[in-house]
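Worked example

This section walks through a single chain of length 143. The input is the sequence exactly as stored; nothing has been trimmed or padded.
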Amino acid sequence: MSVDKIFVDTNILVYGHDKDAGQKNHIAQNLLTELWNSRRGVLSIQVLQEFYVTLTRKVSHPLSPSAVRNLIRDYISWQVEVNDTDSVLKASRIEENYRISFWDALIVTAAMKAKVSKILSEDFQSGQMIEGMLLENPFHSMR
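Given that input, the structure is written out below as tokens.
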């Protein structure tokens, strides 16, 4: 029996480790815990890069580089997709077709390569379908 994989965008990963994120922290922590336990989580190198920069420089109370490196060491046990030159070309097509940012299109491209059923992100319209994948904003009900 195959298990549907779920791609996690940077913002979900960051909120899961940013104690100042309030309710978003709790929601993201629960999601990440469920994905750890079910072994369904998928990331990309892009997400891990953005995660590092955000948690060490952009949050209210940055974490130390070594603390974030340790988190990344844990997350590399997940399926991690690597963008290549073909990914860049596919992302440019997705950017054009769906009128989303190029960086978001790279996320979609990595998720496509991983054959996920869903992308968790606050950057997309919740419920939207792109390339056969459901986009879900887990914070949508907070509005």
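What to look for: The mean pLDDT is 95.
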